[in-house]
Amino acid sequence: MFALAIRSLRRRAGAFTASFLALFLGSTIIMAFASMLDTAAASGATGEARDTLVIMANVVGGWGLLLVVFAVTSTLTLSVRQRASEIALLKSVGATPAQLARMIVGEAAGLAVAAALLAVVPGMLAGRGVLGLLHGTGQVPAEIGHHFGPVALSMGIGITTVSATVAALITARRATRAGVADSMRSAAVDTGRPSRRRIVFAVLFLLLALDEAVITVTLMDGKGSDVMATSGQADILAAIGLALLAPTIMRRATSLLSRPLRAFGAAGELAAATMRRRTGALASAVSPVILFVGTAVGTLYLQATENAATEAAGLAKTAEQKSIETLNFVVIGMVVLFTAIMLVNTLVAATAHRRREFGQTRLAGATPRQVLAGVALESAVLTVTGVACGTVASVFTIVPFGLARRDSAVPAGDAWTYLAVVALAAALTGATTWAATRRAIRVPAVEAALR
Questions:
Q1: Exposed e or buried b for every residue in 24-43, given b needs 16+ CB within 10 A?
Q2: DSSP string computed for 119-135
Q3: Which end of the chain, N or C, is more open, meaning fewer C-beta atoms within 10 Å of its C-beta?
Q4: Can you tell me where the transmembrane regions are (predicted)?
Q5: Which helix (H) or strand (E) holds 32?
Q6: Are 49 and 165 part of one and the same domain?
Q7: Tens-place pLDDT, residues 404-441
């Protein structure tokens, strides 16, 4: 079955692009921040400089790792879901669940090793960039040079391979468990119903976020900048929890918005019908939006509130506060870049997979303009849902931190910060979907329908 995995990789290279890019970006991030540990050890850094390097590696790298594992699992699930008909066909000709599982895991392991090896040079360059940022802010002396060694390599390659393999095992178990008839039905209608395990993990993450919020307004109240230690991670935990519930959320959103969408005529009918049939794929696309909005909004307003509290107290920022501020903006930059690329990547992969569907829709009488309009409405629903869930996730950080730091649930900062994040999310989602759909419908309808 490993030979079958290799042939599958060659035959369906486009379907694996999203997974490969997630693994590549994840390995790059892990190596970049893990190299701070190599730098701290090889340069003999001491005191605040060493603490800064270790914190940067552990905190930012740790959250990066969590996001990477989530993204890898999400994209591998999307890749396998897009191949549901192929997997069902293999079952019908006698392939056993164990053989299919080995094929899926073999594909994932091959992608992971290739992505990790290709990420070594970008990871090294990114690590230099992170250290340069710390040099520029005076948190690490300029004489401390960058070192890229065994910690970065072992963590980058090892974690990427292990996470991909585990994610593939989880995905393969669900894909191979169903019978042939059920697999055929799943291939035709992608309802994307979440497994019990997914729901359990979602609830766990949300409870952890709630726990951090409660600790912030009780035990950490009045403890100054130290409040960031608990409140700063609540939005990420909540965003991951809501992203895990994305299939259920998108199914509810589809049910709620189907009637209003029909007011847009043929395009609305197309959008409503497609959303009911492709809930799973839409859930994969909305997850990066939730992570992007939740983390960006939460962290930006947390830092604005901290700056306002320090200014109101008439104090100058300490070296530690400057370090935390830099850390926050590095986290924002990493999450924004990673989730933005994953959002674009997922949407391109999901839309390109619909080329046959677009061809069949046009043969049934829909014009290219109606297809584009229908996809635009789907994109609007996806954006609104993602922004709404991301906003809810950010509240787990913003409100508790404001109460503990300023006795106010209203965060410092203006509305333009929030609007800028929402506008960027909408622009990325809308522009990517429109461009990918335009490219897909350039293929003649008959040719596309037969692919």
A1: bbbbbbbbbbbbbbbbbbbb
A2: THHHHHHHHHHHHHHHH
A3: C
A4: 60-80, 100-127, 147-170, 199-220, 232-250, 281-302, 329-350, 371-403, 415-436
A5: helix 17-43
A6: yes
A7: 888 888 888 889 999 999 999 999 888 888 888 888 78
